[in-house]
Every structure is written in structure tokens, then in C-alpha cells.
Amino acid sequence: MKIVWTSALLLGCLMGFSIGVDMVQGFSFSMALQNAYSPFRVMEFAELFVLFVLFVLFFLLFCFVSEVFYRSFKVKKQNSDKNKTP
Fold this sequence. Notes:
3 helices
């Protein structure tokens, strides 16, 4: 999981850096954004499909992990409430 978050953080930082450099060179924000996303526009259908499937899997994994944390927090809170009542 650390590898996924590290990769996402690096992607965000590098895209932000790329957009910043383009803006310093005189491009507008929309043009800099288009330059940052241009590699995704030349992908073939199979590559886009794999990218979409990976996004869906990461979203489902995020939902699962958040539900596990929510339920464990809820159980801990119920246990602490039971221990407080005499």
C-alpha cells in the first residue's frame, strides 16, 4: 500500500512541477494542463482499459479499507461506552 501512495504522490508532484515550469515559460494554465495530460491522449484502447480497471480497483480497495477503519472505530466506541456505564 505504501508503494501505491508513494507512486501517487510522486505523480502529483511531478505533474505539478511540469505545470509550474510550463506556466513560468509563459503558457496559460489550461495549456500547461493539456501538456501534462497529453501522454494519456495518445494511449490505445487496451492501455486506457487497463488504466480504467486499475482506477476502479484502487477505488474499491480504498472503499474497503475505509469501511474496515470505520467499523473498527465504531466497535471501539461501543466498547468504551459499555465500560463507562455502571
